[in-house]
Amino acid sequence: MISKLIVVKRNGSKEEFIYEKLVVSLLKVGIPLDYARMVAKLVECRIIERGGEVSTSEIARWVLNLLKGIDEGFYKKWVEAYKRNKGVDLEKELEMKLYYYEEPMITP
């Protein structure tokens, strides 16, 4: 059993994945609570499936793909907020790192 879920940040440091932190970040960009919880839970499950440790880029890719499958507007809000808050063009970064690919979409 995995005790802690770990996120590897861009600088190589590690921190615990906190479900609520992802929910709050989604709420801040206008994603409704039910969708924010669903996305966070799916990300949490994927981290577990991957052995309990993933990069922030993987989480960002998963969130983008999930939001795009729910509502294109949510997707755009997330990308804009990410760029504003972290100074990173998320779509461009993911394309450059070849992380972006189409995954099956989960719709509510």
Structure description:
With 108 residues, this protein is mainly α. The chain has one domain. The protein is 59% helix and 8% strand. The chain contains 5 helices and 3 strands, in the order ββααβααα. A 3-stranded mixed β-sheet has the order 2-1-3. The termini are far apart.
Run of helices and strands: EEHHEHHH
Total DSSP helices: 5
Roughly what percent helix?
55-70%
**In angstroms, what separates the terminal alpha carbons?**
29 Å
The fraction of residues assigned to DSSP E strands is 5-15%
Spans where pLDDT lies below 50 across 5 or more residues: 98-102, 104-108
Mean pLDDT: 83
Task: Characterize the largest beta sheet: strand count, sense, and whether it forms a barrel.
Answer: 3 strands, mixed
What is the number of E strands?
Answer: 3
What are the key terms here?
globular, 59% helix, 108 residues, 3-stranded mixed beta sheet, mainly alpha
List the helices and strands and how they pair.
Elements (H helix, E strand, L loop, with lengths): L5 E3 L5 E3 L2 H10 L4 H17 L3 E3 H15 L1 H15 L3 H7 L12
Summarize the structure.
The protein is mainly α and 108 residues long. It has helices spanning 19-28, 33-49, 56-70, 72-86, 90-96; strands at 6-8, 14-16, 53-55.
